[in-house]
Amino acid sequence: MRAFRYARATDPGEAAALVAGVPDAVYLGGGTNLVDLMKLGVLRPGLVVDVSGLPYDTVAHRPDGGVLIGGAVRGRRLGLDEGIRSRFPALTRALLSGASAQIRTQATVAGNLLQRTRCPYFQDTGTPCNRRSPGSGCAAIPGVHRDLAVIGTSDACVASHPSDLAVALAAYDAVVEVRRPDGEQRLVPIHELHRLPGDTPWIETVLEPGDLITGVHLPPPAAPSATYRKVRDRWSYAFAVVSVAAVLRVEAGRVGDVRIALGGVAPRPWRLWATERALVGTDPGDDDVRAATRLAFADARPLPGNAFKLDLAADLVAAVLRELR
């Protein structure tokens, strides 16, 4: 076992001071992903700063219908929150499908957003992986890549982001609240939090060293109908092959507003901006929705083992919008 230092922060300022100037320091929330990767030797931090006791564990419902979800809120608590269940049903569905009851009890909202890819080559220290070992190569491209990304990828990395919660938050236009080490607050739209791999796949988010996710802002829901649906290899706890979060408002039989985000297809939650624009004002049938969904994949780079995801995503979006209508 590789030795590391452990410290438990009692306030945000102390947490920032602990990690200041320590390049291999990490924050610990629930630890459901971090601890596993430490056991595998994928991550080897010299300092682990426990922030689970910081005062970011509340769900605050605002009079306008929006919500501020603390970064330290556990998945179980958020999934059982009646205000979330009634006004943000896609979020609840994503939480319940994203982890076992035991993991939801432990995992935090901030940790969920920052969890690392489940690409098998990232987790196998005996294989090349640019995310784990910069410049070593990507074993997934010529190897097993069925469950990996088809869009937003590069020649350096084809890993997909595993979070179900992040996909639902993307459909709800969430904004992530970040505390900088100097105490300054920064707001980051959820679709800007995760970076595409490009030539530097080991830089996974826009967060700077010492930045701490303190909460997630949800604006009032844009439409009354919403859901989350996930295609996975087994019914029990499993990561998405493809998932869809959708928020829909229909006016006089036509689409008044629609927000769609996909999971399992990209290095971050993938918002279907072009599809949304194409559908607003229309009365689309399934074939129209499939065609509009494919607009979002104009720049897709599927590999032989995962090209099926393009049709699967189009079919899934069509099925979800049919259900919501």
Uncertain residue segments: none
Q: Please state the structural category.
A: alpha+beta
Shape by Cα distribution: globular
Number of helices: 13
Q: Please identify, by name, the CATH architecture of the domain at 225-324.
A: 2-Layer Sandwich
Give the helix level as a range of percent.
25-40%
CA-atom Rg in angstroms: 19 Å
Strand order across the biggest sheet? Answer: 4-5-8-6-7
Order of helices and strands: EHEHEEEHHHHHHHEEHEEEEEHHH
Organism: Asanoa iriomotensis
Domain FAD-binding PCMH-type: 1-223
Keywords: Oxidoreductase
Pfam family, one: CO_deh_flav_C
Outline the structure in words.
With 325 residues, the protein is α+β, with helices and mostly antiparallel strands. Helices cover 30% and strands 20% of the residues. Among the domains are: 5-52, 2-Layer Sandwich (Uridine Diphospho-n-acetylenolpyruvylglucosamine Reductase, domain 2), CATH 3.30.43; 225-324, Enolase-like, domain 1, CATH 3.30.390. It has helices at 12-19, 34-40, 75-80, 82-87, 89-98, 101-106, 109-113, 120-123, 164-171, 190-193, 273-279, 286-295, 308-324, and strands at residues 5-8, 25-28, 47-50, 59-61, 67-70, 175-179, 185-189, 212-218, 225-231, 242-251, 254-263, 270-271. A hairpin with a 6-residue loop joins β11 and β12. The model has no long low-confidence stretch (mean pLDDT 95). This is FAD-binding molybdopterin dehydrogenase. Residues 1-223 form the FAD-binding PCMH-type domain.
